[in-house]
Structures are given as structure tokens and as C-alpha cells.
Design brief:
Low-confidence stretches of chain A: none
Low-confidence stretches of chain B: 1-11
Mean pLDDT of chain A: 87
Shape of chain B: globular
Number of strands of chain A: 16
Number of strands of chain B: 11
Strand order of the largest sheet of chain A: 3-4-9-6-8-7
Helix content of chain B: 25-40%
Number of helices of chain A: 14
Largest sheet of chain B: 7 strands, mixed
Strand content of chain B: 25-35%
Radius of gyration of chain B: 18 Å
Order of helices and strands of chain B: HEHEEEHEEHEHHHEHEHEE
Strand content of chain A: 15-25%
Oligomer: heterodimer
Order of helices and strands of chain A: HHEEHEEEEHEEHEHEEHEHHHHEHEEEHH
Number of helices of chain B: 9
Distance between the termini of chain A: 31 Å
Structural class of chain B: alpha/beta
Strand order of the largest sheet of chain B: 1-11-10-4-9-8-7
């Protein structure tokens, strides 16, 4: 379609009132900075939280008995055969696969009885990439093998039981057949996560020792924890693994992504993300209002000129497009300004982070849903979230330009020439 | 005053539009045109029973006191405004039957405008202002450039193509406006008080320029003016009073 150089004309128009345009661009740039940093902090801290929870719980995807999630019990098991573990581990996005037994037990010593959760682990398969608690081993050592006779207690739990390293602890639980069984272990390690909920309510037991006590067949566990490179792939991969395993083992097995396996955490993250989205919506609205003001005033100031353009043959559509181009240029310049303004703070916060210890006055991490968060805040925005911010700014700018563009398109040449 | 100037000339005659050949050459025809503006509860008539025919190649002035309807008539001829009653034909097309976008195209292709306040786009150079309508028409760049450079040369702006309006004097800006108006070879160029903001010398120069364009290229000009210099050069002077034509004088 033949036409004037609308983009060129629009570009020159936005610089007619340089100060006004620059103020608008600064507004967009600061909005971008706020949106990117708040989203980046959220993305980074939720990822840390989810990863920590996965390493404390059942992984990013947990394979378990179909009824386990509704009512966890030690008789709801899956057979973690070598073949099955290999099948799951073969998935390209899977980082690690570890079988575990989780449940509750009564711990007793000569001086006290305390109820606690336990995780049965195979030390040969675990690392701090699959079990965050390994980093919290403050005293003693990890089990030598999966049929070790030790027990590792949280520090507060050990204090409640009044035991230290090498002391005996009797743990009592209900086996697969519903009978009460007991095992005797010596404390081989003390965990100190800094999270009171964890330190007072969790202990580690060797996997094969537990299997024997519970009457499990070799490889029989309550869950297979699957760790992924990216927790955001959990739903899709859980679906794929679930479909694959159900084809082999029937509907008795299910694969749940972390947000279904840990609904409390998922709810917390959703709530925070929603709050963040509302904040971003407010930022976007403020940006939109600023751009609208700039464009509207700019159009109203040029009504006579727009009327002249209409008089010499510009169509309504071309005048509309001219103002849309102006808003598009402002959006593009705003994004460039936003990137320039955001680059250094983002780089600094992504690499060095921001240590909140000085602000909180404590070295203990903040606990969220029983998860201890790092004191250092890092920023790492997901590329798609960054893209969404960019698109939102462009859309907000275009949206802000629609009414001024409409007014420009509807200009009556004779009115504009006569009255302005 | 304009009537007396026209009537004072030895070579004046009442304008006659009755012949068949003149009808074929008619490019603007207004019949029984009325234009009423509403101001609150009141109706203000600007044109009353206005009839006018303009033929190709005319160099015509619409004169009359302020409020006589000159600018309204010019706006209606230029398809910038529509009459309340009556018919307007430009280049054989009835404006009342045309859509908004068709009117835009008509203005673009058939009508040139020269305004009192020049009204150039301040962010475009003289060249870009002059070529704007040709761009709208989709004229190829090479043809466009040749046409605009020639016109800017004709109006005495050679070497000033890259200046923006702020870097040009009032007279130079009006020359660019004339170049912009006639660049697409419109059937008629409407000039609303084109000399009002210019000094005498510049006004004379511009009138000579437009007269030259009229004589050499057959460009049709209709001026709305109070300026005796324009009336003196016009070959037809239409004197308006209270929204109708009081006198229509053709000079040789």
C-alpha cells in the first residue's frame, strides 16, 4: 500500500518534545527495572524453594502408589526395580532418580519417646543434589551402606530424645501387614538445618534396613524421587513418566509433579506469584497511564497539523497508524532504556546477590513452609517471563496509543483548521 | 472594494458559464448550496443559495468582507466540509455520494491546498513536505524526486530542499506549501488568504509564481482573499456578501 513514511514521520514526531518523551522513557525504564527485578527475585527464590523442597521431599516428580498421596501408609508401595529406575532415568530431562521409603515412626530412648517422620535412603544413590539434608550433617557421618544400622537425627529431635552420637534409639513403626515392628539403631549423625520444623521432626534411616524391617521385597519402596534439570518441566515429565509406568505396571502407580505432591508449597508459590502479578499489573497500568498522557497531549497539541494532513489526503487509517507508530517507537525506546537501566543491577544481583542478613540482623534463614530460605537474594528471571514483560510493555504502550490514535484518525480537517 | 476594483477595469464582463464547451471544462460546480452552522440553539447561515462554476485553468478570487462565506465556500469546494443543502461536484463527482475515505482520496488526487499559515509539517524537510502527497499517491521514488526537485526549483527554493520549515522564512515556507499543493497536478488549487502573512515583495513574488503556474501549466487556482493585489491579478473575481454571490466578474 502506498503511503507516507509513517515510521519516519512518527519517529521524528516523538522527539518534538524531547523532555516529555524522555520523561516517559524514564518511566518505562523504571517500570521495566521494577518488573524484571521483582519477577527475577520471585523466579529465583521460588526455584530455590521448590528445589529445596524437592531435595527434602520426593523430588520434582514423585512416583508412588496411586493412593499414597491421599493417605500415606507404609503398605502403599511401588516396586522400584532396576529396570524401572533405568527407564525413568533415561528421560533426557531427568537428572537423578532415587528410591526412598517415607513414613512416620515413634522414636524411643531410655529417657523419652518422640514421634517423627523418617526418610529411608540408599546412601550410594543420594547426594546433596537429591537430598539437601546431607549438607546439614553437623555431626557424625552418613550411613556407609543401605543396610547400615545407624540413624541420623535432627538436632532438636536428638535433644528431645536426649541422645548424642553413638547412643541407642529404638524406632517403632507399622509394617506392610499392619503389625507393629521395632528396630534398634545407634545415632550416627546429627542434622542441623536451622529450620526448627525439620530439625525436630525428621530422621534418616538406611533403606535396606528399613525394607527388611517392614517386610518389603527387594526394591520395594514408598516413593521414587525424580529430580529434573528444571522444575518447570515437572508437570509435563510427570505426565510422560506416569503414562509410561502405568503402561507397564497398571494404574496402581502414579507420577505426581511437585506442585501436586506438595500442595501447601504450591499454594504458597501460587499466592506469591499472584501477588507479584498484581504488582506488575499495577506497574503496567502506571506505565500505560504515563504513555497515554504523553501521546494524548501530543495528539491534542497537533490537532491542527493532523487536520492539515487529513486535508491534503491522509486517510483516517493513515493518521491512526501514524500515532500507533509513535506509541510503538516509544515502546521500543522504552524497552531499550529499560534494558540499559536494568542490565547492571540485574547482573549484580544475579552474580553477587543481596545479603538480607544485615537487614534482618540474623544469620538464620527465613523459613517458609518448613523450608529455610537463603539469606542472600539472587535474581534470575526465566526467559519467558522476561519476554512476557517485554510484550506487556509493548502491548501497554500500544493500548495507551489507541485512543489518541483514534482521535487522530477522527480529526475533522475543517474543524481542526478552524478551531485550533 | 473588490467589486469596484473589478468593475473599474475596462476589460471586465459578467462571467458566463452557459456555453457547452464551458460545461465540459467545468471542474467545480456548486448548485444551490447552503451551509448552516449550529452554535448552541442558534443556526448561523454561512452560505445561502450559493451557485458557482469554475472551469479548468481559471485564476479566480473569492472576495468579500469577513463572515461573507469565502472560507466556508473554499472548505466545501475542497471537500473538507459538506453543505447542509445543495450539491457540490468536483471533477464530475458528487461529494455527497462519497465516503470519508473517498473524500480523502479526492483531496489527495484532485485538490491542492495552500493555507494562510503555511501549515507545513515541522519535522519534515522542504523536500519531504513537498513530496508528501506524491508519496500518498504511491508515485515511484525516482519520479517523485524529479517532480519535487523541479517544483522546488520553480518556486525558487533550489538548494533549500533539506531545510526544515523552522529554517525557512515565511515566504519560503509558503513556496514549499505551493509546491506541495501543485505537486500532484490537482484539478484545482485552493488558497485561503495565501498572502496574508507575507510582506509585499514576497506576496508579489508568490502571486507571480502562481500566475506563471496557471498560465504555463494550466493550473486552476481559487483564492479566498482580502488582498487587493490578489484581486488585481485574478482573472475572475467573485464577490460574496452574506453567504451569496453579489458579483461575478471575469477579466480578460
Amino acid at each position: 500500500m502506498p503511503g507516507p513514511r509513517l515510521p519516519t514521520l512518527a519517529w521524528r514526531n516523538i522527539w518534538r518534545n524531547r523532555r516529555r518523551t524522555l520523561i516517559t522513557l524514564v518511566g518505562i525504564a523504571f517500570g521495566t527495572l521494577l518488573a524484571v527485578l521483582s519477577t527475577g527475585i520471585g523466579d529465583s527464590s521460588y526455584a530455590e524453594m521448590i528445589d529445596y523442597a524437592a531435595r527434602l521431599g520426593g523430588g520434582h516428580v514423585v512416583v508412588q502408589h496411586a493412593d499414597y498421596q491421599k493417605l500415606p501408609a507404609l503398605n502403599k508401595t511401588v516396586a522400584a526395580s532396576e529396570d524401572l529406575l533405568q527407564r525413568v532415568a533415561a528421560h533426557p530431562d531427568v537428572r537423578a532418580v532415587v528410591p526412598r521409603i517415607r513414613g512416620g515412626a515413634m522414636l524411643a530412648t531410655s529417657s523419652n519417646n518422640v514421634g517423627s517422620g523418617f526418610i529411608g535412603i540408599d546412601p550410594a544413590l543420594e547426594s546433596n543434589q537429591t537430598l539437601g539434608l546431607l549438607d546439614a550433617l553437623a555431626e557424625g557421618e552418613m550411613f556407609a551402606t543401605a543396610d547400615d544400622e545407624g540413624i541420623i537425627l535432627g538436632r532438636a529431635l536428638a535433644e528431645n530424645l536426649d541422645v548424642g552420637l553413638g547412643k541407642k534409639v529404638v524406632y517403632t513403626l507399622t509394617n506392610k501387614d499392619g503389625e507393629i515392628v521395632s528396630g534398634l539403631s545407634r545415632v550416627s549423625g546429627i542434622l542441623d538445618t536451622g529450620a526448627a520444623e525439620v530439625d525436630s521432626g525428621i530422621c534418616l534411616l538406611p533403606l535396606r534396613t528399613l525394607q527388611q524391617l517392614l517386610g518389603y521385597a527387594p526394591g520395594e519402596v514408598t516413593q521414587i524421587a525424580v529430580f529434573l534439570d528444571n522444575h518447570r518441566d515437572a508437570t509435563e515429565i510427570a505426565h510422560q513418566i506416569g503414562a509410561d509406568l502405568q503402561g507397564q505396571l497398571g494404574s496402581v502407580v502414579t507420577a505426581l509433579p511437585w506442585d501436586e505432591a506438595m500442595p501447601d508449597l504450591a499454594g504458597f508459590v501460587t499466592m506469591k506469584v499472584t501477588g507479584s502479578l498484581i504488582m506488575q499489573l499495577i506497574i503496567t497500568l502506571l506505565i500505560t497511564a504515563g504513555i497515554f498522557n504523553t501521546l494524548f497531549v501530543s495528539v491534542m497539541e497537533r490537532m491542527r497539523e493532523l487536520g492539515i494532513l487529513a486535508a491534503i489526503g491522509f486517510t483516517s487509517r493513515q493518521l491512526f497508524a501514524l500515532v500507533v507508530w509513535e506509541s510503538l517507537w516509544i515502546a521500543c525506546c522504552g524497552i531499550v532504556a529499560g534494558v540499559l537501566l536494568t542490565a547492571w543491577p540485574y547482573y549484580y544481583l544475579a552474580t553477587t546477590g543481596f545479603d538480607t542478613a544485615a537487614m534482618t540482623g540474623t544469620q538464620a534463614g527465613t523459613q517458609v513452609s518448613g523450608i529455610t530460605m537463603s539469606q542472600v537474594l539472587y535474581v534470575e528471571i526465566y526467559p519467558d517471563h522476561a519476554a512476557v514483560i517485554g510484550v506487556a510493555i509493548v502491548l501497554a504502550t500500544l493500548l495507551a496509543g489507541i485512543y489518541p490514535a483514534y482521535r487522530a484518525g477522527r480529526v475533522s480537517p475543517v474543524e481542526a483548521i478552524r478551531t485550533v | 472594494m473588490s467589486t469596484s476594483i473589478a468593475q473599474g477595469s475596462a476589460a471586465v464582463a459578467k462571467h458566463d458559464t452557459s456555453s457547452e464547451s464551458s460545461t465540459r471544462n467545468t471542474i467545480v460546480k456548486l448548485t444551490a448550496v447552503e451551509k448552516i452552522y449550529r452554535q448552541g440553539k442558534f443556526e448561523v447561515p454561512a452560505l445561502r443559495g450559493f451557485d458557482l462554476e469554475v472551469r479548468r485553468g481559471e485564476f479566480m478570487a473569492l472576495t468579500g468582507p469577513s463572515g461573507s462565506g469565502k472560507t466556508t465556500a473554499l472548505n466545501i469546494i475542497g471537500a473538507l466540509d459538506l453543505p447542509t443543502r445543495g450539491t457540490v461536484e468536483v471533477d464530475g463527482r458528487n461529494l455527497a455520494a462519497m465516503s470519508r475515505s473517498e473524500l480523502s482520496r479526492l483531496r489527495r488526487d484532485k485538490i491542492g491546498f495552500v493555507f494562510q499559515a503555511y501549515n507545513l509539517v515541522p519535522v519534515l524537510t522542504a523536500f519531504e513536505n513537498a513530496e508528501m502527497v506524491l508519496r500518498l499517491q504511491g508515485v515511484p521514488p525516482r519520479d517523485r524526486a524529479a517532480r519535487v526537485m523541479q517544483l522546488l526549483g520553480d518556486v525558487g527554493l533550489k538548494g533549500m530542499e533539506h531545510r526544515r520549515p523552522a529554517e525557512l522564512s515565511g515566504g519560503q515556507q509558503q513556496r514549499v506549501a505551493i509546491a506541495r499543493a501543485i505537486a500532484p497536478s490537482p484539478v484545482v488549487t485552493l488558497a485561503d488568504e495565501p498572502t496574508a502573512n507575507l510582506d509585499s515583495t514576497t506576496a508579489e513574488l508568490l502571486l507571480t509564481l502562481m500566475e506563471q503556474l496557471n498560465r504555463e501549466h494550466g493550473a486552476t487556482f481559487i483564492f479566498s482573499t482580502h488582498d487587493p493585489r490578489v484581486m488585481a491579478r485574478a482573472r475572475r473575481v467573485v464577490h460574496m456578501v452574506d453567504g451569496h454571490i453579489e458579483d461575478d466578474i471575469a477579466k480578460d
